[in-house]
Design goal:
The protein is α+β, with helices and mostly antiparallel strands. The chain has a single domain, classed as GMP Synthetase, Chain A, domain 3 (2-Layer Sandwich), CATH 3.30.300.130. The chain is built from 3 helices and 3 strands. The chain has a 3-stranded mixed β-sheet with strand order 1-2-3, with helices on one face. Strand 1 and strand 2 form a beta hairpin. The radius of gyration is 14 Å and the shape is globular.
């Protein structure tokens, strides 16, 4: 692994850490552990693309959550810009949650 790859892995870890501070207001679990984050792509320019979904297209925070995610990702040291892509394919389901989230919500 070269220095660039090591730096990108560290940057991705910092982005994951900050995403774990964002919560779906209806579910007491962060959006990362809920499985709402599908991809985190770091480009050579240090622009970061986050591909994410919502628990449903009718989610009450559909208008605000992507903006919150964008601001959080932009706040990470080393990130030049953040692009949030909101997708609904594949649709989110409970199997996408981490074991920790399933335990927290009583699914295990």
């Amino acid at each position: 692994m070269n220095q660039e790859q090591i730096h990108d892995e560290q940057l991705k870890g910092a982005i994951v850490d900050v995403l774990k501070t964002v919560f779906d207001p209806e579910i007491p679990v962060n959006i990362y552990d809920l499985g709402l984050i599908y991809e985190i792509n770091i480009f050579p320019s240090k622009d970061v693309e986050v591909v994410m979904t919502l628990t449903s297209p009718n989610c009450p925070v559909a208008g605000t959550l992507p903006g919150d995610v964008e601001q959080k990702v932009k706040s990470v040291s080393g990130v030049k810009d953040a692009i949030i892509e909101l997708v609904f394919e594949p649709p989110w389901n409970q199997e996408m949650m981490s074991e920790e989230a399933k335990l927290e919500l009583g699914f295990l």
